[in-house]
Design brief:
The chain is of the alpha+beta class. The protein has 4 helices and 6 strands; from the N terminus they run βααβββααββ. The strands form 3 sheets. Strands 1-4 form a two-stranded antiparallel sheet. Strands 2-3 form a two-stranded antiparallel sheet. A two-stranded antiparallel ribbon has the order 5-6. Helix 1 packs across helix 2 and helix 3 packs across helix 4.
Length: 134
């Protein structure tokens, strides 16, 4: 069972949600998806979230931004165990979305897939765990 979640600043999230919903009443309370149809909405919401003080990481590819996230599922635990067995000096240090962790992220994602984790490939070619898109 997946117990994955985004680490959102609740005050910034609530303000971004309120402002976004006021600008788009036709959407009501529907959630944004990773579908291309929602790309402009996701960008708009993320701009609001950051403007209200929410933390986000810019991917090295430029415009993609993500809030911090936590994955908690069996594939994550196996990937973490195998990754840190190979790189014990990195034990306890979370991978970031910064350029210096790019190769480590790719390797970790390969381990995640080998452990049975499903991924979604974004238009930019970046792979993210499927549980984050549900």
């Amino acid at each position: 069972m997946s117990r994955s979640y985004w680490l959102l600043d609740s005050e910034a999230k609530d303000k971004a949600d309120e402002t976004f919903r006021a600008s788009h009443p036709e959407r009501g309370y529907s959630l944004l998806s990773f579908a291309n149809d929602d790309a402009a909405f996701r960008k708009e919401w993320m701009d609001l979230y950051i403007a209200y003080g929410g933390p986000a990481t810019h991917l090295h590819t430029g415009s993609k931004r993500f809030a911090p996230m936590v994955l908690r599922d069996e594939a994550t635990e196996i990937a973490d165990r195998n990754f840190f067995a190979k790189y014990p000096e990195r034990q306890g240090r979370k991978l970031t979305l910064c350029r210096e962790d790019l190769d480590y992220r790719r390797e970790w994602m390969d381990l995640y897939v080998q452990a049975g984790g499903e991924v979604v490939t974004l238009d930019s070619g970046v792979r993210i765990p499927r549980v984050l898109t549900e």
